[in-house]
Design goal:
Layout (H helix, E strand, L loop, with lengths): L1 E3 L16 H9 L8 H12 L16 H9 L5 H7 L17 H9 L3 E5 L3 H9 L4 E5 L4 E9 L4 E5 L14 E4 H7 L3 E5 L2
Antiparallel strand pairs: 1-4, 2-7, 3-4, 3-7, 4-5, 5-6
Helix pairs in contact: 2-3, 3-5
């Protein structure tokens, strides 16, 4: 049986990192190394899949992409003091804020009004229990160094179901509802998580 967040199986709650303005600027100016917004895209996937509103509007017709607005938060100097308070040893004016997991609870609360919690953990069963209780969990892979959005758990297969903001890293080009078993989790997930809606 699969249990997860409210919209774990809804593609409309799946955000990718390959189509936002920051990535376009970097793509146009880089030598091929430009996919950097996996964290904000995974975070927005977590928040949206839980049923929270991620709409960001403008007075005109343009609707900014939610993951882009979250990325902007990390790079807005007005937010550096709050980010530094979350992790004092990592100056946000030097580091790419989207890479620092401790910054996400501050950013997501400020942008979307959703509570989140960072914690160190390498326990597959704990992540499974949070997913089954209806929490979305942002994880980070070791190789590639890359954030994903865990949205459900299949207790029969004993697999985490996640949405990957970089669909192009898979041969079939599909990052939606991928599977992650305990062995792969142990071998390739960094020992921390960001839990949403807590």
């Amino acid at each position: 049986m699969i249990k997860g967040v409210q919209f774990w199986n809804d593609r409309d709650c799946y955000y990718t990192q390959t189509n936002n303005p920051t990535e376009e600027i970097l793509r146009k100016r880089s030598d091929g190394d430009w996919l950097v917004s996996c964290g904000p895209s995974a975070a927005v996937t977590c928040v949206a899949a839980m049923g929270f509103n991620v709409y960001c509007g403008c007075p005109g017709e343009y609707v900014p992409q939610s993951e882009e607005v979250l990325m902007d938060f990390f790079n807005d100097p007005r937010n550096y003091a709050a980010l530094k308070a979350a992790r004092p040893d990592t100056p946000p004016d030097v580091w790419h804020g989207n890479e620092v997991p401790q910054f996400y609870p501050v950013a997501v609360k400020s942008v979307f009004g959703v509570k989140a919690r960072f914690a160190f953990c390498s326990d597959f069963n704990k992540i499974a229990a949070m997913l089954q209780a209806g929490q979305a969990v942002q994880l980070c892979l070791v190789k590639p160094g890359h954030y994903i959005a865990a949205v459900a758990f299949d207790d029969e297969a004993r697999e985490i179901i996640f949405n990957d903001p970089w669909p192009g890293r898979f041969k079939d080009g599909n990052g939606f509802n991928r599977r992650l078993g305990a062995a792969e989790y142990k071998a390739n997930v960094k020992p921390f998580y960001i839990a949403y809606g807590v």
